[in-house]
Design the sequence.
């Protein structure tokens, strides 16, 4: 059972480069989200999606784009990397039923360094 | 937006002792869900325990239990018989009944002293 799969696990970029962080889940979850984790700041929501074709901004969306063409995949794009985007990125998914106590399932994270 | 506060950035406990991690949250809703996640050095986010707000009984999972005080909007995690493998960052999280978003606290780093 794969759960949530994130790739790559580590990446180093130069300022101005672009890249896509991949996220896939095999649990048929409607809700998917991207977080960044920085020391002392916990997990901050970047973007989220409640289903294929539907995305919305979270708390810290600037500098990031997302799309959701299928239920399974939710890639995060950095169009022009900046040192402030150095962070650990987590993708998560969950069942989105009303009144659900189901938790979010997380990928293993991507450590991204921008030089 | 809901806010979740973990006021203890760092905690330590002797092996085999008990420790309590604090979490408070701000909400005007009556139905919601609360979670504790553990993040060991491997970086994985692992669900420890969950609590439904409509349940008066505190959730327990083996050595882990919560003290849920709805009126005080408090959701603390108690770890009994602490083990070296409990050393990790612990995050408290809130989810609305009517939405999908999870709101996380800033985390508490737990050190277990042999």
Sequence:
């Amino acid at each position: 059972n794969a759960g949530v799969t994130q790739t790559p696990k580590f990446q180093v970029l130069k300022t101005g480069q672009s890249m896509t962080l991949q996220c896939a889940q095999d649990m048929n979850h409607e809700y998917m989200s991207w977080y960044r984790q920085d020391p002392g700041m916990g997990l901050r929501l970047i973007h989220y999606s409640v289903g294929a074709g539907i995305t919305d901004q979270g708390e810290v969306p600037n500098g990031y784009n997302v799309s959701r063409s299928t239920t399974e995949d939710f890639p995060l794009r950095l169009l022009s990397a900046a040192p402030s985007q150095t962070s650990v990125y987590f993708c998560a998914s969950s069942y989105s039923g009303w009144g659900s106590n189901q938790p979010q399932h997380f990928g293993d994270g991507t450590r991204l360094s921008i030089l | 937006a809901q806010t979740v506060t973990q006021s203890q950035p760092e905690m330590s406990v002797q092996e085999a002792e008990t420790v309590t991690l604090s979490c408070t949250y701000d909400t005007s809703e009556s139905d919601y869900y609360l979670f504790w996640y553990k993040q060991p050095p491997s970086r994985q986010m692992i669900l420890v325990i969950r609590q439904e707000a409509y349940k008066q009984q505190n959730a327990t999972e083996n050595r882990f239990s919560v003290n849920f005080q709805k009126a005080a909007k408090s959701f603390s995690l108690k770890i009994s018989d602490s083990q070296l493998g409990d050393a990790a960052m612990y995050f408290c999280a809130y989810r609305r009944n009517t939405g999908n978003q999870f709101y996380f606290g800033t985390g508490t780093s737990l050190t277990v002293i042999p």
User: Anything to note?
Assistant: Chain A is about 0% helix and 50% strand.
